[in-house]
Amino acid sequence: MEVLAESIRNLMVGFGVALSPLGIVFVTLGCILGLVVGVLPGLGGTAGVALLLPLSILVPREIGIMFLAAIYWGALYGGVITSILFAIPGEPWSVALIFDGYPMAKKGNPGLALSAAFFSSFFGMVIGAIITVLAALPIALFALRFGPPEMFAIMMLAFSTFVGLGRGSAWKTLLCTAFGLLLTTVGLDIVTGQPRLTFGSIMFLSGFHFVPVTVGLFGLGEILVNAEERIGLKLEKIAARMGKKDFKDGLLSLWQRKWITIMGTTLGFFIGVLPGTGATPASFVGYGLAKQYSSDPDKYGEGTIEGIIAPQSAAQSAGIGSILPLVTLGIPGSPTAAVLMAALFMYGLWPGPRMFIEETEFVWGLIASLFIANAVCLIICLAGAPALAAIMRVPWGILTPIIVVALVMGGYAMRNFMFDVWQVFVFGVLGYVMKKLKYPLAPLAVALVLGAMTERDLRQALIMGRGSPAILFERPISATVLVIAVLLFAAPLMKPVFAKIRAARQPKAS
Q1: Whether pLDDT at 212 is above 80
Q2: Rounded to whole angstroms, what are the CA distances from 494 to 37, 169, 177?
């Protein structure tokens, strides 16, 4: 109870920061920019936050981090509009909305589909934010016991979740993770200061910065993919009309299907907490489970409102869940959370449990802003969905060069290096190739952020153990976490073995 009371007191302090005039202005601005980013295919939440990262240094850091987080929440809402009205996912996590949202809109109910999605987003984020308030401080206090061995084990657990719990090829995931870790070693050694992997080039001494790499991978790469897919594409125009009846019916639909909302929200939050997952897998899992346990699964894909509520509530809650391991353990739960983590480094902060003691206003201001940004996004979406949908009617030939110029400027603005501009273009092409070959981008992005921390914690742990790696297994917490990580790394190798065992037993059972 004492921890709960302390959390509530700290949350009130956070609201004092978030509700300041400057805080409200920048949270609202972040929500608007995020909604625009979410509507524009090719500018995802990750690239949008990275692109606008330089703007956050113009205000106090408490306001800056709320501004960046609000862009993320706005992008989560913005992807709804394009998926339901145009069957074009503005964000990866809004793909699942197309299955039932677009058919419902074509049947003449676009207002109901949009309002149900917006209200699902609202309740998903509110419940996720409440869970964050309740869980953040206890996790942070427990994590204060962690030393370098435990933190290195947590890093390994973060990487292993991509392999053991991720979708797609485990080998491709491992390769992308290793490539991200390799990029972090380019430049000056974090201990000795000696150049590493620079090949005698002064240009490589500065290393690969996270912002231009992310802007290239998630921004320019997505632009190239969209440009290819849009050749010969004609948008079917569905009006984004919403009236009071749509609002009422949307809320009533949520109440009548409250168990689907609760299931999607709870499931999405805990998927979002897992490092490197985020909203995309949560939306598909939410949709899949709702369909699997439905009394009439055949109605899914025909325009049922359950197919909107389940994935959207799960995606929004997962977005909130990805913040929890970031502020408590210093582990980003999604690629966008990894960009927010890069912002913390830029502010001179070290994310993790000590932030709850040393930077109380900063951490709880961010948590309080979740509630405010959520309310602002809902109001803007309900009032301005037609205006946001109109962005999609701007010719793609006009939007593309504007977005590309903005991406290049965002990559350059962080360090004012021409090398960073080349990074945007090189990693943009690489992102396009990886998407076409179905290589996951998230492991690379998260590894790029966590690489330096992983190396630092491993070196400190080895110094503590006088060069012996046995110290990693001598401490109970680090040993337990490392064993779980090893099992997750080995999971893809064990799946065929278990499949053969089941196949061998099946004839005997019959």
Answers
A1: yes
A2: 41, 14, 20
